[in-house]
Structure to design on (661 residues):
């Protein structure tokens, strides 16, 4: 490739047809011819200068030295599009930076118009790439995350307070209370959850009995399977697993319902109409959970023990009558109490988390999806953390 | 006048179940023109756009785009054809997981032999041609205003230098200044790049400012086509109501005042 004197043919080649399936309709060949003409250098472009050939053409044009005025001859071009015009405009910008004039000759009206449009729109990168995060930046991110987590906790407490205040007010002013909504939500979060909760509890009872049987048989202590099943289900598993299922089912439903209302500005509309969203939306939902979760938990306890009893009978030969006797003798009422006392707390946490997440939804559908999954994660996590705290508390209290 | 028709619709019928939207619809769109399609709500303006751009299969009729029979075309033929047109949807329909620049790069990725840096530079060029600032290329669609999303949608539609651009309600939801700027952008680009524009709109100002020809959809077909001036003489209740209503008069007065000034 020579530039001084004579001619240099920079490149001819077919581009396109990279793979059989993607035959490009306009894929053509493109040649660049460089010739010295007096003080100027004439660059003749031949063929199709379009998006399929621009990569090669731009590279070749970038390799062209701009130590003298350039004349770009487009009279042999069959086709030029914005990508080709971009390559020419870039060369022109480079020439101008070097103080050399770059003129375009032989362009038809179509090419001229495209080049003018592209020239007017040539993007000017105006920012530098961001420096990689330093150690201080990472530390800052951790700090900000911690503060955000703290603020989130405070916000949840504020929502709890809001719920309690509005609930108290609707006791004082019963006219504000929405009984229809409460009944509706009781149906939604309670009755409709019975089949899945019952099935879950039944299977857990079976699993406990089966696993317990295998272990207890080694000591000939089969009969203690009754205590194993009843204590673990009544104290922990019945209510905890119910709460987890309800958290997955109901927290997401609350967030989606309130969030989509928030998204469509229905919440704002309620406020302008003098309706308090907390009274209208939060109180019936959270209250429905507080009423229904202990009932669901109780159902889970009963069905779970039934499942365990069935398995104990089949696997260990513990007759139902024997199971019943040992259940009533051995299991203290306190186990049931310890389990059930957690239910309303779980209910309030799930409800508050779900309602709070719903109110955080912004104006677009992505935030609705994000908050819905975040509310489920937060609700389940909170339920487990609170359950752990209860365990420690009851152990210390000797219950 | 001998003009090349780039879109030819013959005897087109579209229907959803028993509900017939278009029946025996005929329409020609000529190269280099900006055609505005108007019609009352529910007359199937967007349905027509979807039928031509292949998103919806009509029940009967023929659609020829750039000489290709769209309904009879094979897969390869259709793919080649799709590169020669671009569609801008109402709210831009940008991929929400990608930045604006990456959105514009999506159609460019199909081009064989186009390397990454060049592709990015071309995407930046298209973003800038649509009147967006350079920085907007790094933004995600959710970070943009409605008008900017429309512009980004246009940038993506223009990525492969199409011959035909379909625009669905390009100015809906924009403030008057933004809408006027978008009208100007459509007009400038169609002239400078020789684009054929198929534009569905409700906006009388857009019709005045950008359209060479107007097609009125009513009674399940294209009732009438013609220039704005010809529309004023059409004797049909809906067309009269539309082009002689108070809003039409205001839009006309604006355009005439602008013409008188220049």
């Amino acid at each position: 490739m020579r530039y001084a004197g004579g001619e240099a043919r920079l490149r001819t080649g077919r581009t396109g047809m990279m793979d059989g399936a993607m035959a490009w309709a306009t894929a053509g060949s493109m040649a660049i011819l460089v010739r010295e003409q007096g003080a100027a250098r004439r660059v003749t472009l031949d063929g199709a200068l379009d998006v399929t050939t621009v990569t090669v053409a731009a590279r070749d044009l970038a390799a062209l030295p701009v130590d003298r005025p350039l004349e770009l001859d487009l009279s042999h071009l069959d086709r030029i599009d914005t990508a080709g015009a971009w390559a020419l405009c870039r060369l022109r910008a480079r020439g101008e930076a070097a103080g050399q004039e770059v003129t375009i000759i032989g362009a038809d009206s179509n090419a001229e118009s495209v080049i003018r449009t592209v020239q007017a729109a040539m993007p000017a990168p105006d920012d530098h790439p961001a420096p990689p995060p330093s150690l201080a930046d990472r530390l800052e991110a951790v700090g900000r995350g911690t503060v955000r987590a703290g603020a989130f906790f405070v916000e949840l407490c504020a929502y709890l307070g809001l719920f309690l205040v509005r609930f108290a007010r609707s006791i004082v002013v019963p006219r504000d209370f929405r009984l229809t909504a409460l009944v509706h939500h009781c149906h939604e979060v309670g009755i409709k959850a019975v089949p899945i909760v019952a099935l879950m509890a039944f299977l857990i009872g079976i699993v406990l009995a089966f696993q317990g049987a295998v272990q207890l048989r080694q000591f000939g202590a089969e009969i203690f399977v009754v205590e194993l099943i009843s204590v673990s289900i009544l104290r922990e598993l019945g209510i905890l697993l119910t709460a987890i299922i309800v958290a997955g089912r109901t927290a997401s439903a609350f967030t989606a319902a309130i969030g989509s209302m928030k998204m469509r500005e229905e919440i704002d509309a309620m406020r302008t109409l003098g309706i308090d969203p907390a009274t209208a939306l939060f109180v019936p939902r959270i209250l429905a959970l507080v009423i229904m979760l202990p009932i669901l938990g109780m159902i889970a306890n009963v069905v779970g023990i039934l499942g365990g009893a069935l398995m104990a009978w089949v696997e260990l030969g513990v007759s139902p009558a024997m199971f019943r006797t040992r259940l009533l003798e051995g299991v203290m009422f306190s186990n049931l109490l310890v389990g059930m006392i957690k239910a309303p707390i779980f209910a309030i946490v799930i409800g508050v988390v779900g309602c709070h997440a719903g109110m955080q939804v912004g104006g677009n559908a992505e935030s609705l999806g994000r908050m819905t999954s975040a509310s489920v994660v937060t609700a389940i996590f909170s339920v487990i953390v609170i359950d752990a705290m209860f365990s420690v508390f009851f152990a210390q209290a000797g219950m | 006048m001998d003009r090349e028709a780039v879109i030819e619709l013959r005897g087109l019928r579209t229907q959803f179940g028993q509900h017939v939207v278009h029946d025996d619809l005929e329409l020609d769109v000529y190269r280099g023109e900006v055609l505005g399609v108007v019609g009352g709500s529910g007359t199937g303006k967007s349905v027509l756009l979807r039928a031509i751009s292949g998103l919806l299969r009509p029940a009967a009729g023929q659609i020829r785009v750039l000489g290709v029979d769209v309904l009879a075309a094979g897969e390869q033929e259709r793919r080649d054809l799709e590169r020669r047109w671009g569609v801008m949807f109402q709210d831009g329909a940008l991929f929400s997981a990608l930045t604006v620049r990456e959105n514009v790069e999506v159609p460019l990725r199909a081009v064989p032999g186009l390397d990454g840096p060049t592709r990015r530079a071309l995407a930046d060029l298209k973003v800038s041609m649509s009147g967006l600032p350079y920085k907007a290329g790094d933004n995600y669609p959710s970070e943009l205003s409605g008008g900017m999303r429309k512009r980004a949608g246009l940038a993506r539609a223009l990525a492969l230098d199409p011959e035909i651009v379909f625009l669905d309600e390009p100015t809906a939801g924009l403030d008057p200044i933004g809408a006027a700027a978008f009208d100007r952008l459509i007009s400038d680009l169609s002239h400078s790049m020789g684009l054929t524009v198929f534009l569905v709109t409700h906006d009388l100002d857009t019709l005045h400012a950008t359209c060479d020809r107007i097609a009125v959809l009513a009674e399940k077909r294209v009732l009438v086509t013609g220039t704005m001036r010809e529309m004023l003489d059409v004797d049909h209740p809906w067309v009269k109501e539309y082009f002689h209503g108070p809003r039409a008069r205001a839009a006309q007065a604006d355009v005439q005042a602008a013409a008188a000034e220049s």
In short: The longest helix of chain B spans residues 176-193. The interface with chain A takes residues 76, 80, 83-84, 96, 108, 110-115, 118, 121-122, 124-129, 134-135, 142, 158, 160-161, 188-189, 191-194 of chain B (CB under 8 Å). The beta strands of chain B are 5-16, 19-30, 34-39, 60-65, 68-69, 85-88, 164-168, 196-200, 213-218, 221-226.
